[in-house]
Amino acid sequence: QVQLVESGGGLVQAGGSLRLSCAASRRTFSRYHGWFRQAPGKERDFVSAISWSGGLTYYADSVKGRFTISRDNAQHTVYLQMNSLKPEDPAVYYCAAKVGVGSPAFDREYDHWGQGTQVTVSS
Question: Which tens digit of pLDDT belongs to each residue from 88-116?
């Protein structure tokens, strides 16, 4: 069983930055890794995804130009650099790994999930 562990969440002022990490216990043989977020009382939303090679990246419109996803396959780690954080960004951020084909933007397509890391933005 693959374990994904997120880290890097915390409290930051609006306009600030955070870098989230997602470390896998071993190679996941996944086509994509994705980041999703869920705010209290809301559904889990797609944030970003990256292909295994790193050659393909996807972003939700709400984070385009502010967030950057990357990966280090040697370290089995995926990162989410979050800049210019806004008051609407706070949520629990989840890392996920997707083995099969299908859209990387749909959470139901993902096979493995981390426990989440809290991001809080103060105004």
Answer: 999 999 999 999 888 999 999 999 999 99
